[in-house]
């Protein structure tokens, strides 16, 4: 194991983030606060509670999950895309570092950043609503698994993308809609029956549901299924990354 | 030639290497090549000949289609950790993390190549490359020449035993070129094997121990530089006359002399390795005709002449 290389990439990525830390933190904190004002206060005041939880509190896990997904994707995709764009990827390709180590370093850094941000958003939310976390260990488990899974997906997007437009394409066109339709702001039980069935094909439903359960003990789908699906997505992302490295797809000619 | 050359295993040994891209373009064809430890090997070839692809296959950026590459006796595919740790690469393109400082980016490469932090080594490299004063500057603020130095510093940061320089002096000024060659000479004294690609033949001529010529994906020649130059090199003799000639007398024309420079100079091309160069006969014939010689000079054919001749033979 080339631990020095993992450390070098990890600290390099974190340092890059740290240089723009204020923008990195302020922007999601401001947008989360706006969500609270709009959905929590304005709309939430007209909705008494969802499954026994006040609406403002109900949306907290969804909002954290939304940021976690978006930040993991953008951190990881940018992390690997930028060396490709700047031409410095030659160093990584010629270094004595295995595929696994490369992924640990890049994905580890991306997941760390998004988890830090998720915790900041959690703290921000605590200023607006009375939070309760029934299963803190499971909350951390879901947070870490989601951050890692979506950082892995971000890593794939970063390798696939050959321009900044493509880098934004999947997060904007697929992931954000899935996140919004995945029960971030509502329980899928509030949907008509047909849409409830369709929603079950949305992977984000399982992430949000499991994460919300760790807060309030209420879930749209069984917690075991949520966990199983999260692990399944992670395994699928790992399989794609393994294929990328085996074939050298968009990395080695 | 280097003393290790005959005893130690090759620094790089390539056998039957092919590279065909997905497009069907065959970039390397049955390359067989050995680089000796401690030598400076220059790989010459025109643009698109396969120089960078060849380096890419050795360093890990390009996947070979067939064949085997050993670095220090280890396979570059199955034992990549060992081989890549031995290699430093200075790429052709001026790349870099523009918002990083010189110190940070060079230190990063050392870590990436599996070496623990060592500030003394980084400091020495930066000083040797006249980068010490710039250590806290961001790459974006540096000139092209300075960026090139940073790339060299990065390649040396993990103390490689084999250094690849891909077109190292393309677009750099005279001062940097001189600094770079000083560093290369020092590295060679430390036993580092240096492989450089260039299409500037004077670089190869000045620095290399051996020269390989690659054209259209094939190695068409590998030779000791001195042997190559003496084997293939012609010498030109230039005889300047006191008074210009209007025409060359038939007796001198028959000896192969040519008139140039407005009739003030006679030129003669000969094989310097030959037992009989014909120079003595020539001088005697000029005297017999009554011409007075002002000056005589000879010029050894450059590698460039040899190189162009070789490529012309192939086409």
Automatic annotation (TrEMBL), chain A:
<comment type="similarity">
    <text>Belongs to the ABC-2 integral membrane protein family.</text>
</comment>
<feature type="transmembrane region" description="Helical">
    <location>
        <begin position="198"/>
        <end position="217"/>
    </location>
</feature>
<feature type="transmembrane region" description="Helical">
    <location>
        <begin position="167"/>
        <end position="186"/>
    </location>
</feature>
<feature type="transmembrane region" description="Helical">
    <location>
        <begin position="103"/>
        <end position="129"/>
    </location>
</feature>
<dbReference type="GO" id="GO:0140359">
    <property type="term" value="F:ABC-type transporter activity"/>
</dbReference>
<keyword id="KW-0472">Membrane</keyword>
<dbReference type="InterPro" id="IPR047817">
    <property type="entry name" value="ABC2_TM_bact-type"/>
</dbReference>
<feature type="transmembrane region" description="Helical">
    <location>
        <begin position="20"/>
        <end position="43"/>
    </location>
</feature>
<keyword id="KW-0813">Transport</keyword>
<feature type="domain" description="ABC transmembrane type-2">
    <location>
        <begin position="19"/>
        <end position="248"/>
    </location>
</feature>
<protein>
    <recommendedName>
        <fullName>Transport permease protein</fullName>
    </recommendedName>
</protein>
<dbReference type="InterPro" id="IPR013525">
    <property type="entry name" value="ABC2_TM"/>
</dbReference>
<feature type="transmembrane region" description="Helical">
    <location>
        <begin position="136"/>
        <end position="161"/>
    </location>
</feature>
<feature type="transmembrane region" description="Helical">
    <location>
        <begin position="55"/>
        <end position="73"/>
    </location>
</feature>
<dbReference type="InterPro" id="IPR000412">
    <property type="entry name" value="ABC_2_transport"/>
</dbReference>
<feature type="transmembrane region" description="Helical">
    <location>
        <begin position="223"/>
        <end position="245"/>
    </location>
</feature>
<keyword id="KW-1133">Transmembrane helix</keyword>
<keyword id="KW-0812">Transmembrane</keyword>
<keyword id="KW-1003">Cell membrane</keyword>
<dbReference type="Pfam" id="PF01061">
    <property type="entry name" value="ABC2_membrane"/>
</dbReference>
<dbReference type="InterPro" id="IPR052522">
    <property type="entry name" value="ABC-2_transport_permease"/>
</dbReference>
<dbReference type="GO" id="GO:0043190">
    <property type="term" value="C:ATP-binding cassette (ABC) transporter complex"/>
</dbReference>
TrEMBL record, chain B:
<dbReference type="Pfam" id="PF00005">
    <property type="entry name" value="ABC_tran"/>
</dbReference>
<keyword id="KW-0547">Nucleotide-binding</keyword>
<dbReference type="InterPro" id="IPR003593">
    <property type="entry name" value="AAA+_ATPase"/>
</dbReference>
<dbReference type="InterPro" id="IPR003439">
    <property type="entry name" value="ABC_transporter-like_ATP-bd"/>
</dbReference>
<feature type="domain" description="ABC transporter">
    <location>
        <begin position="12"/>
        <end position="241"/>
    </location>
</feature>
<dbReference type="GO" id="GO:0005524">
    <property type="term" value="F:ATP binding"/>
</dbReference>
<dbReference type="InterPro" id="IPR017871">
    <property type="entry name" value="ABC_transporter-like_CS"/>
</dbReference>
<protein>
    <submittedName>
        <fullName>ABC-2 type transport system ATP-binding protein</fullName>
    </submittedName>
</protein>
<dbReference type="GO" id="GO:0016887">
    <property type="term" value="F:ATP hydrolysis activity"/>
</dbReference>
<keyword id="KW-0067">ATP-binding</keyword>
<dbReference type="InterPro" id="IPR050763">
    <property type="entry name" value="ABC_transporter_ATP-binding"/>
</dbReference>
<dbReference type="InterPro" id="IPR027417">
    <property type="entry name" value="P-loop_NTPase"/>
</dbReference>
<keyword id="KW-0813">Transport</keyword>
<comment type="similarity">
    <text>Belongs to the ABC transporter superfamily.</text>
</comment>
């Amino acid at each position: 194991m080339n631990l020095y290389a993992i450390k070098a990439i990890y600290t390099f990525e974190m340092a890059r983030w740290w240089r723009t830390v204020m923008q990195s933190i302020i922007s999601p904190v401001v947008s989360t606060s706006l969500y609270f004002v709009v959905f929590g206060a304005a709309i939430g005041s007209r909705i008494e509670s969802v499954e026994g939880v006040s609406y403002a509190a109900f949306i907290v896990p969804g909002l954290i999950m939304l940021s976690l997904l978006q930040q993991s994707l953008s951190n990881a995709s940018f992390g690997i895309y930028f060396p490709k764009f700047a031409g410095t990827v030659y160093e990584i390709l010629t270094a004595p570092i295995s595929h696994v180590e490369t992924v640990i370093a890049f994905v580890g850094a991306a997941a760390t950043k998004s988890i830090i941000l998720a915790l900041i958003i959690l703290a921000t939310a605590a200023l607006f609503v009375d939070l309760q976390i029934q299963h803190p260990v499971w909350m951390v488990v879901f947070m870490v698994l989601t951050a890692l899974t979506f950082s892995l997906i971000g890593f794939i997007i970063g390798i696939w993308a050959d321009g900044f437009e493509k880098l934004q394409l999947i997060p904007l066109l697929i992931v954000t809609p899935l996140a919004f339709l995945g029960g971030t702001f509502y329980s899928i039980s509030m949907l008509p029956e047909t849409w409830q069935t369709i929603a079950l094909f949305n992977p984000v439903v399982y992430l949000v549901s499991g994460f919300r359960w760790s807060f309030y003990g209420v879930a749209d789908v069984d917690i075991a299924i949520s966990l199983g699906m999260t692990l399944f997505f992670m395994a699928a992302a790992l399989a794609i990354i393994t294929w990328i490295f085996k074939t050298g797809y968009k990395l080695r000619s | 030639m280097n003393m290790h050359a005959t005893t130690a295993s090759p620094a790089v040994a390539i056998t039957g290497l092919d590279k065909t891209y997905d497009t069907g373009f065959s970039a390397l064809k049955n390359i067989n090549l050995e680089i000796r430890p401690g030598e400076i090997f220059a790989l010459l070839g025109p643009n698109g000949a396969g120089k960078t692809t060849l380096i890419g296959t050795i360093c890990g950026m390009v996947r070979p289609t067939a064949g085997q590459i050993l670095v220090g006796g280890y396979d570059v595919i199955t034992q990549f950790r060992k081989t890549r740790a031995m290699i430093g690469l200075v790429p052709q393109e001026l790349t870099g993390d523009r918002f990083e400082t010189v110190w940070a980016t060079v230190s990063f490469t050392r870590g990436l190549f599996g070496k623990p932090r060592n500030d003394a080594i980084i400091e020495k490299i930066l000083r040797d490359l006249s980068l010490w004063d710039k250590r806290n500057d961001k790459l974006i603020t540096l000139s092209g020449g300075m960026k090139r130095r940073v790339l060299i510093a990065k390649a040396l940061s993990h103390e490689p035993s084999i250094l690849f320089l891909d077109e190292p002096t393309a677009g750099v000024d005279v001062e940097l070129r001189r600094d770079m060659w000083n560093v290369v000479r020092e590295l060679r004294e430390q036993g580092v094997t240096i492989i450089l690609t260039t299409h500037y033949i004077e670089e190869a001529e000045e620095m290399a121990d051996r020269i390989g010529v690659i054209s259209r994906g094939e190695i068409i020649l590998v030779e000791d530089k001195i042997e190559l130059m003496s084997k293939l090199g012609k010498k030109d003799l230039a005889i300047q006359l006191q008074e210009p000639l209007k025409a060359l007398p038939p007796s001198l024309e028959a000896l192969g002399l040519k008139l140039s420079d407005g009739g003030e100079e006679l030129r003669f091309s000969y094989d310097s390795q030959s037992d009989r160069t014909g120079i003595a006969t020539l001088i005697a014939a000029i005297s017999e005709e009554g011409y007075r010689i002002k000056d005589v000079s000879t010029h050894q054919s450059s590698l460039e002449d040899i190189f162009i001749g070789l490529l012309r033979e192939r086409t």
